[in-house]
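sry for the spam today, last one i promise. struct tokens for design, 686 residues
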């Protein structure tokens, strides 16, 4: 693996040497030529410096030198980037964040060659590139480096690495402790506030992926240069926890697409090549080696070389993708992200319950949202971000207007919408002060669950949601039971969307189809982006079945009386064709005070396009019944073979509380918030 990395880097650097030095005057936003050229340059500087360290070949040293000397001619004369937008402008890039990334990479490439340069070249690069960049990103950008945010993490890493390289303790201390060195900001404070005690990052998995590189790289530099700080033991080993959790918040290598996330980001990224190598160096946990094997790549650093050697020596152990409760917030008390997994495999069935904090400015208005994925990929989906990253034609690669009007709106997620408005009336800063509450979690056994609640998302409306993953004998995939309850003293319109991936096969709901024209569902809070393709109603249990790849999925719904069903698709009021066209099923109840929605997701059957075979395309769930009994909700699932599974969800979520109910004349008892009873077919001998 390491040899392949050397070959790959040598090809790219040799091509850069042949092409000659190209350091253009900054002009373009993300995705434009000058933006991409400066990115290529910092990657080349990093790679060439590492190649010089490994081979000692002068051409690699000289190419790093020549690139940095060209920047020494350009950088001191630069002002704010001409394509600056709403973010703080950089000098080389349209936002200073990218300047920080440049510095992090440039320092790592410059460090191996610095001592081999002439004193004049070294001083010119130090004084006209490295130091002024570090000064711009520190004292020159207090509004950035002083934040508790991923932009500040990259800035601290760049400034701190530059300080270690130049022997400038002032720069190092500003990076670690903030510009005033009080400890109220800076790298250590970011470790305190941006991660929960479980290593979960405040802005969600996608931005955890992005931020983990500067955390890991600067952490490794601190460990090497300031060993007495014991940085990998800081805050009960939070850096090591954060690297582990970054791997855990993925499915089949893809980062969970909550908050402002792009669905195509995986563990095969530069950030994770660094983090996995540094995580292995810090822990020697052989499970990291299996992740590196899946990645198929590493980095040209000593940590990457050691990882590749141990992987080649057969020391890898499987990564345990188990169920996890990830507390949210600095103290882990602001709700949680719950991962319920049916098997400890990278692509096994995964239920995600999002019961935490807003997620700062990159968060969405989606408390009590849920997602489901299996080996077919995302099944119950989340839109993520409305953005074409670095695609200049799409507003310079920035977030699109539809990110606010659609992607972050509550109706774009799988959670309750009240009166057609987003949670907290669409104001994320208000929402940041009101996390959901994680009431109970069961991570082990054939019945796993998450119970969450929130009372502040809508004035006067309390919402509670229980999600239960059920392993059932004879079924290849788990069943997912969803019990959502809303209570209020006033009357409301309750909408419960279900966003799914696949092609609709059939339904027992009689939909009136809008064939001639497509009406739009509403005017604001995301509803303006939904076309209504069909509307129907059905008394009792209803079913919608769709197919994705090699499997069928049936969603069984038991909403409150009088509910209507809407089949909708995103893409309305989208003049620039910015939105993906994705379907959803909405259950709507109007004029209700309290409402209970019971849903059951049933994966079933298989489809083999090559063999042209179909197996079990019909649902195995025959009936779904919901009863309110004293102090609990009882849901009875009846399978086609007559077997029944009764799931009781208690009002009292205390772990040690004993409960007892009567079902068909039979006494059933359990302890804790969730009880499960596998019953014989009705009428069978007990």
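last one done:
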């Amino acid at each position: 693996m390491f040899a392949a990395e050397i070959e790959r880097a040598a090809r790219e650097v040799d091509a850069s040497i042949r092409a000659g030095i190209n350091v253009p005057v900054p002009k373009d936003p993300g995705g434009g030529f000058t933006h991409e050229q400066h990115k290529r340059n910092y990657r080349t500087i990093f790679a060439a410096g590492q190649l010089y360290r490994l081979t000692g070949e002068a051409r690699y040293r000289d190419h790093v030198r020549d690139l940095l000397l060209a920047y020494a001619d350009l950088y001191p004369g630069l002002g704010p980037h001409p394509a600056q937008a709403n973010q703080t402008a950089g000098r080389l890039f349209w936002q200073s964040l990218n300047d920080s990334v440049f510095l992090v990479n440039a320092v790592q490439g410059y460090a191996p060659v610095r001592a081999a340069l002439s004193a004049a070249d070294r001083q010119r690069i130090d004084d006209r590139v490295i130091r002024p960049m570090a000064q711009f990103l520190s004292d020159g950008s207090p509004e950035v480096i002083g934040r508790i945010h991923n932009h500040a993490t990259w800035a601290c890493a760049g400034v701190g690495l530059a300080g270690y390289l130049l022997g400038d303790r002032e720069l190092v201390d500003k990076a670690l402790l903030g510009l005033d060195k009080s400890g109220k900001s800076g790298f250590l404070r970011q470790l305190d506030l941006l991660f929960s005690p479980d290593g979960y990052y405040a802005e969600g998995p996608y931005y955890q992926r992005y931020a983990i590189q500067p955390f890991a790289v600067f952490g490794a530099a601190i460990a090497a240069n300031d060993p007495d700080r014991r940085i990998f033991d800081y805050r009960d080993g939070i850096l090591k926890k954060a690297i582990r959790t970054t791997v855990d918040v993925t499915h089949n290598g893809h980062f969970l697409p909550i908050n402002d996330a792009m669905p195509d980001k995986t563990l095969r990224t530069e950030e994770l090549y660094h983090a996995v190598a540094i995580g292995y160096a810090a822990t020697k946990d052989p499970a990291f080696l299996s992740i590196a094997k899946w990645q198929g790549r590493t980095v040209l650093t000593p940590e990457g070389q050691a990882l590749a050697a141990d992987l080649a020596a057969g020391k890898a152990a499987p990564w345990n993708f188990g169920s996890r409760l990830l507390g949210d917030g600095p103290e882990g008390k602001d709700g949680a992200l719950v991962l319920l997994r049916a098997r400890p495999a990278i692509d096994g069935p995964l239920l995600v319950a999002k019961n935490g904090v807003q997620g700062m400015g990159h968060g969405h208005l989606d408390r009590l949202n849920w997602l489901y994925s299996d080996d077919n990929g995302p099944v119950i989906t989340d839109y993520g971000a409305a953005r074409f990253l670095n695609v200049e034609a799409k507003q310079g690669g920035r977030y699109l207007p539809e990110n606010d009007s659609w992607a972050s709106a509550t109706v774009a997620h799988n959670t309750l919408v009240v009166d057609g408005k987003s949670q907290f009336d669409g104001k994320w800063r208000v929402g940041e002060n009101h996390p959901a509450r994680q009431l109970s979690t069961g991570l082990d056994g054939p019945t796993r669950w998450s119970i969450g609640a929130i009372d502040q998302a809508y004035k006067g409306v309390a919402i509670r949601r229980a999600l239960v993953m059920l392993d059932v004998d004879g079924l290849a995939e788990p069943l997912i039971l969803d019990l959502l309850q809303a209570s209020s003293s006033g009357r409301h319109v309750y909408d419960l969307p279900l966003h799914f991936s696949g092609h609709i096969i059939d339904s027992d709901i009689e939909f009136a189809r809008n064939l001639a024209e497509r009406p739009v569902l509403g005017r604001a809070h995301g509803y303006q982006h939904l076309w209504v393709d069909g509307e129907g109603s059905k008394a009792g249990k209803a079913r919608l079945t769709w197919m994705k790849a090699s499997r069928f999925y049936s969603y069984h719904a038991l909403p409150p009386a009088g509910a209507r069903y809407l089949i909708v698709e995103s893409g309305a009021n989208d003049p620039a064709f910015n939105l993906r066209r994705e379907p959803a099923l909405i259950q709507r109840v109007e004029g209700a005070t309290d409402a209970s929605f019971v849903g059951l997701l049933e994966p079933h059957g298989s489809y083999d396009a090559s063999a042209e075979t179909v197996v079990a395309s019909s649902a195995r769930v025959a009936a779904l019944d919901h009863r309110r009994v004293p102090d609990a909700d009882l849901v009875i699932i009846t399978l086609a073979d007559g077997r029944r599974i009764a799931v009781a969800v208690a009002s009292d979520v205390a772990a040690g509380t004993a409960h007892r109910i009567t079902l068909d004349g039979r006494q059933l008892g359990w302890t804790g918030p969730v009880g499960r009873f596998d019953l014989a077919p009705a009428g069978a001998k007990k």
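The CA atoms of residues 421 and 525 lie 5 Å apart. ok im logging off now
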